[in-house]
Amino acid sequence: MRTKWTPHQRTAIGLSLFLVVFIGALIVFNAQIERVSLRPNGSTQFAKATVVKVISSNIGEDENGEMQGNQVVQLKITSGPYEGHVCEAQSPHANHAGAYCVPGLKVIALVNLSADGDLVASVYNYDRGLVLWVLIGLFFLILCAIGGRKGVTSSAALIFTFVCIMFLYIPMMYIGVSPFFAASLTAVLVTFVSMLLIGGWSIKSLCSILGTAAGILMAGLTAQLFGYFGHISGLNVEEIETLAYISQNSKLDVSGILYSGILISSLGAVIDVSMSIASTIEEIHGTNPSFTAKQLFQSGIRVGKDMMGTMSTTLILAYAGSSINTLIILYSYSMSYLQYMNGYEIGIEILSGISGSIGVILAVPFVSAISSLWMTRQDHK
């Protein structure tokens, strides 16, 4: 007897096969990429270590009340090729590196062999790996516990997004693919898989996918257009020296990174708005099948007005939070309008936040129009 699969089961099986094939293709793709070593370390190894004892310490408070100084400690290496060895190590303590060592502290050490064959080490930083993984696990646990099945699918969508960014988007740019094309392809894949995981194969999901694509495209085009007239490009970012050095040893197109990043950063908000509007119109249509396409469109716009305000605020606050150091400097130095408004730092933040918000706002009428027309058309069929 032939097994009859439900539409949901067929979607789940098809999506699972796609993910298996896609992840396999990503593994093969990344295996073919040769990355030039930009920081040759010789035989230097990063390794986990435990502080056995503090031999000497001159750490004290500076004029700002911050702890500064250096320690000489004894470490026991607990990972890597030198596991089990005990050696002395320098531990500089500063805001950006080193650690304030006490016996039993878990740290990350830089370990090397001297010309005489002795083990030489220095404390790189605190061992934060376990703490960060516990935080990540707690996030997914809360998401799944409160969201139930939707929480599980949302977790899967989030993991897939991370995989696409780290193993598709960035490697594509590294080998010379246009950053805008790499971001667009990544956005399409993330949107397609996320919508199917969350909403299943349905008109609602398809409308959300099309609306998200339209909103993201408008965000990217807006950023490029006003970036062109404002003479802002990826060459004006703070990390340009490092990126330029990377581009000399790869095919990275530094000038396009800024706009592809704007596209990726606004993707989540646009997906959220698109799915919410499509779900709302589907619910209204199911409750009131007599509603015309115009009435459904107007309902989607009314719901979207509240969402576009909150999601735009979310994007603006996210960019403001990431540039808070720049804002504090601007305020403290009492910079004039002509100075801060025409500086690259503020210009890039405004360009990024506003372009992403425009993508969110325009996604509302796009999704409302697509959903209302498609759903009423299905009724006629």
Structure description:
- The chain has 381 residues and is α+β, with helices and mostly antiparallel strands.
- It is 63% helix and 13% strand.
- It has ten helices and six strands.
- A five-stranded mixed beta barrel has the order 1-3-4-6-5.
- A hairpin with a 5-residue loop joins strand 2 (60-61) and strand 3 (67-77).
- Helix 4 runs antiparallel to helix 6, helix 6 runs antiparallel to helix 7 (293-322) and helix 6 packs parallel to helix 10.
- The longest helix has 46 residues, at 129-174.
- The radius of gyration is 26 Å and the shape is globular.
Main beta sheet: 5 strands, mixed, barrel
Structural class: alpha+beta
Helix and strand run: HEEEEEEHHHHHHHHH
Question: What is the CA-atom radius of gyration, in angstroms?
Answer: 26 Å
Low-confidence stretches: none
Largest sheet: spatial strand order: 1-3-4-6-5
The fraction of residues assigned to DSSP E strands is 5-15%
**Mean pLDDT score:** 83
The overall strand count is 6
Q: How much helicity do the residues have? A: 55-70%
How many angstroms separate the termini? Answer: 32 Å
**What count of helical segments does DSSP give?**
10
General shape: globular
